[in-house]
Amino acid sequence: MNSRPRKHSLTLKGHRTSVSLEDPFWLAFRQIAAQNNRPINELAAEIDELRGADCGLASAIRLFVLRELQGQLGDQP
After folding, report:
1. Cβ neighbours, 10 Å, residue 73
2. C-alpha distances in angstroms, 8 versus 33, 45, 73, 77?
3. Coil, strand or helix: which one is 45?
4. What CA–CA distances, in Å, run from 40 to 35, 62, 69, 75?
5. Of 66, 57, 56, nearest to 25 (Cα)?
6. CA-to-CA distance for 70 and 32, rounded, in angstroms?
7. Which of 34, 36, 67 is nearest to 50 (CA)?
8. Cα(37)–Cα(45) distance, integer angstroms
9. How far apart are CA 16 and CA 60, in angstroms?
10. pLDDT tens-place string over residues 19-52
11. What's the pLDDT at 3?
């Protein structure tokens, strides 16, 4: 699979930003937000607040998606 990261726009607390994510991560992120009846910008803002200074927003979103999917599969440590 050749899925190069693409820029996606988000609004975090009234400020526009973009994250570069591969399409499968972006799609899963949108699905997780929808399943939880949350706007994607709200979820991204929460992830942004919780991430450490040494972790970029795109990486934090990827890790969030991974944890969510692992939890759905029952593989959460």
Report:
1. 8
2. 15, 14, 27, 30
3. helix
4. 11, 14, 17, 25
5. 66
6. 12
7. 67
8. 15
9. 17
10. 999 999 999 999 999 999 999 999 999 999 999 8
11. 77
